[in-house]
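[Discussion] Sanity-checking designs against the backbone

I'm trying to build intuition for which residues belong where. Below is a structure token string of 94 positions. I'd appreciate it if someone posts a full sequence so I can compare it with mine line by line.
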């Protein structure tokens, strides 16, 4: 699935991931391939990308974590909104 993370200043990330964990207003939620379309507000917390690797141009924006042998790349946000449909997602955040 393709995810794009944008702030008012720059593009934080754009690329393919296996899934993404987001900090929702009512708790974390996980978007995976073939997830139903959704638009949701986000609260402060970590956006976690589950992927084999990410492009070096974006790696500087992320903290690399390991969870159960899976590569996880996290980016901390203050708030935002996500729109996800047809395996494409846009996260607008600050």
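Best answer:
Here's mine. Compare freely.
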């Amino acid at each position: 699935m393709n995810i794009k993370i944008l702030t008012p200043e720059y593009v934080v990330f754009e690329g393919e991931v296996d899934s993404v964990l987001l900090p929702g207003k009512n708790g974390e939620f996980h978007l995976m391939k073939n997830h139903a379309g959704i638009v949701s507000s986000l609260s402060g917390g970590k956006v976690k990308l589950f992927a084999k690797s990410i492009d070096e141009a974006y790696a500087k924006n992320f903290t690399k974590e390991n969870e159960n042998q899976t590569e996880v790349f996290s980016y901390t946000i203050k708030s935002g909104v996500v729109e996800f449909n047809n395996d494409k997602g846009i996260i607008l955040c600050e």
